[in-house]
Amino acid sequence: MGLFSSSDDNLYLGIDIGDSSLKMVELRQKNKKIHLSNYAFSENVSGVNFTKIEDINYLAQAILKVRAEAGIKARRVTASLPTFSVFSSIITVPPTEKKNMDAVVSEEAKKVIPLPLEEMILDWKPVPDSSGTDNKDGMRVFLTGSPKKLVRRYIEIFRLAKLELASLETETFSLVRALIGNDLSTVMIVEIGANSTDLSVVQESIPVLNRSLEVCGASITAALAEKLGLSFVQAEQFKIDLSASLTDKSPEELPQLILKTMAPVIHEIEYMREFFQGNAKGKKIEKIILSGGGAMMVNLADYISKRLDLQVIIGDPFSRLTYPDEMKPIIDEVGPKLAVAAGLALREIS
Question: Which of 129, 175, 208, 254 is the most exposed place for a label (fewest CB within 10 A)?
Answer without folding.
Answer: 129
